[in-house]
Amino acid sequence: MMINKQLENNQQKNMALRFGKELGSKVVMVDTGLGRPQFDSCYVVAQRAPSGDRLAIIDTGTNFSIPRIMATINDLGCSYEQVSYIILTQIQLDHAGGAGLLMQNCPNAKLVVHPRGVRHLIDPSSLIASATSLYGVSWVDKEYGRLIPIPSKRIMEAREGDLINLAGRMLTILETPGIAKHHLCIWDELSQGVFTGDTFGLSYPEFDTPQGSFVFPATPIHFDSRSLKVSLKKVMALTPSCLYFSHFGSFQHVPQMYEAFLKLLEEVENLGKKLKFAENRHEFLKEGLLNIYTQALRNQGCELTDSKIQQLLTLDIEKNAQGMGSWLD
User: How many CA atoms lie within 13 A of 218 on its CB side?
Assistant: First the structure.
């Protein structure tokens, strides 16, 4: 499925950066449109070259996100042929569900992913089966659409320390397990920033207060606390000046964010250990996580009602509780 026609039909075609926000250092954040505004993002990274800008796209969102990415490429005055790399921090469908469709529309791009993720991009049937078992067929069709396989010859396996040369702009691969065994972060030497995927957790703008952004841990089904802490230290050893989140936004004041994140992660771990052998553990984990998040938000000056907080966090609490159960077992 090619999407040029969708872009032509967009009545706002001449508006600059319809779905993107420039963050400096030729980094553009794109709201993928998944779920709700400012919930899920991907990034377009550009570098000047004699023949025109070369682009790398970090994460893709779902199939329904691709028109937004392609529109952003157009808004930047670039062509789809200028995309050299599509880099995935992980293969969960909110990060990578649109990779096949985007690759179809970017003929010169290589797909960069951890070796553990390669087979799932060549044959995405198990990704669909996993999502369907959690959410049901109709929800998966509505939110993700049909996943498109990627030819193996267009896929690059990425390991710790591998360098992606984007016309002289060096992007360094960091293996960062803890969220998933195949999770990657990307260090961008030019911006002195790290594209973190879910390693540093999640942050939703609805929770921002004058005290700053609220960041809370992701503990999905392959969560491993010990590995995550090692990955966090690896990123912090680079002394990044900013972090680019997949959920959602870019953040400075990294040391303060790191310390607050570790404190909240410790509370989450203690909750899990306390409930390890409890009956109805899953429900108690969900209740405990909501209490931890709500109290942390109140401490940060969040004035949303308890019901609104619960509404915004319902899906994350369910996924995080499931992941903690797997971790505890």
Answer: 24
Report the chain's terminal Cα–Cα distance, integer Å.
42
Q: Shortest CA distance to 320 belongs to which of 274, 295, 288?
A: 288
How many CA atoms does the CB half-sphere of 163 hold within 13 Å? 7
Amino acid identity of 48? R
Task: Indicate whether 15 pLDDT > 70.
Answer: no
Domains of the chain (ranges plus CATH)? 4-253 (3.60.15.10)
Cα(192)–Cα(48) distance, rounded to whole angstroms?
18
DSSP 155-205: EEE--TT-EEEETTEEEEEEE-TTS-TT-EEEEETTTTEEEEETTT-B--G
What's the mean per-residue pLDDT of the chain? 92
C-alpha separations of 171 from 160, 242, 248, 253 in Å: 12, 15, 21, 22
CB proximity list for 265: less than 8 A, separation 6 or greater: 217, 225, 228, 229
Per DSSP, the three-state class of 30 is strand
pLDDT value at position 137? 86
99: pLDDT strictly greater than 90: yes
pLDDT at position 49: 87
The closest alpha carbon to 60, from 231, 197, 207, 259, belongs to: 197
Pick the closest to residue 64 from 22, 97, 38, 112 (CA basis): 97
